[in-house]
Amino acid sequence: MDTELDLDRLAELQGLLGTELPEIVTTLMTELGRAFAGIDAALADGDLAAAALAAHAARNSALMIDARPVLGRLGELEASARRQDATATIAANEHLHEAWPALRRRLERAAAPG
Predict the structure, then answer these.
(1) What is the CATH topology of the domain spanning 7-11+21-107?
(2) What is the pLDDT of residue 89?
(3) pTM of this structure
């Protein structure tokens, strides 16, 4: 299995939704990007509750494709934010930003023609 996501799940989503893969990938990337921006904004405001909610929303999208290690990073971020541990939440967000580019590239490759 791919280290960033489960390609079989993408194929299953395509069948279930009756939607082409590029559209599914665009939707997932938009949802994840929006949630990551929400996390960043919440942390900039010192709002750990909002960061936890944004991480939870992102986890829902990441779960659909078993997107590891991003999924793990989001779990860490959500848990630390709910514990009101700002230091751990900021560290988890940094790890999330390190993991996201690999998943994004893999999603883009999965949606590319050919």
Answers:
(1) Four Helix Bundle (Hemerythrin (Met), subunit A) (1.20.120)
(2) 98
(3) 0.85
